[in-house]
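Contributing new complexes? Match this layout with phosphoenolpyruvate.
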Amino acid sequence: MARERAKLVVGNWKMHGRIEQNAPLLTEVAAGASALQDVGVGVCVPFPYLAQTQALLADSIVRWGVQDISAHAQGAYTGEVAAEMATDFGATYAIVGHSERRAYHHETPELVGAKARRALDAGVTPIVCLGETLDERECDATERVIGAQLEAVLLMLSEEQAARIVIAYEPVWAIGTGKSATAAQAQNVHAFVRSKLAEKGATIAHVPLLYGGSVKPDNAQELFGQADIDGGLIGGASLKSQDFLAICQAAQTVLQ
Ligand code: PEP
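Output block (do not edit by hand):
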C-alpha cells in the first residue's frame, strides 16, 4: 500500500544563505526534526556551506546534500563539483535536473541521466526533478514531457540503480510562484510516474516520489495525504525553520 511508505521532506535552499543565517536555521531544523518518526528530513545547501552543514547536522537525524553535481568523476571541468567531493562532506543527496538548471543552464534529459548515474556511482542519492511548463500543461503534453524526462534517466541506470533514486515532480509553473498544483493534479502525475516506474520493475515502483512547487505549511498535509505522494521538495519555505518543520510535521500527521 502506498500509504505505508515512509515520508521524506527535503529542503532546497537554492542560492540562499550566509554563514551567520545558516547556523540558527540548521540548528533549529535539527532540533525540531528530532521529534519526528517515519519522516526523513534533508536539506540541500549551496556547495560552500557543506562543511558548516555537516558540522551542525552530524549528530541529528537530518541528512544533507547539494543542488547539482557534475556528470564527470574528475578532470578539467572548471567550476564543476564532483559527487565524490560532496561525499567528502557527508552528503547524502544531490538534486539533479532541477527546472532552473534545465532552463538556465540548458541541461538536457541525457545530461540529467548522466548526473543521476554519476551520483549513484559515488554513493549519493540523486533527487531527480521532473516537471512540465505551463504551456506544456495547457497543450495536454504533461505526461509526454514527464514520461520523456523520466525515460532519459532510466535509460542510463540499471534496475538496481534505479531502485535507489528519489524522484521529485515539480511543475515549473508552481515553483516559487505561490501557485501550488492542486492535490489532485499532483496525485495524477505521481500516479502516472509510478506506473511508468512499475513498467521497469517492481522494486523501482517504490522509489520515493516527492512533490515540489510552492509547498507551504497550509497545503502540505493535503498534498502529502495523496496515495502516491511520498513527501516534498521544498524551496522557499525551507528557509524558515518554523515553516519547514511545520511541513515535516504535516508529513508525520498523514502517517498517523
Ligand atoms: C524548488 O525550488 O525545488 C521548489 C519547490 O521551490 P518552491 O517551494 O519555492 O516553489
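Reviewers usually confirm one structural detail per submission. For this one: The radius of gyration is 17 Å.
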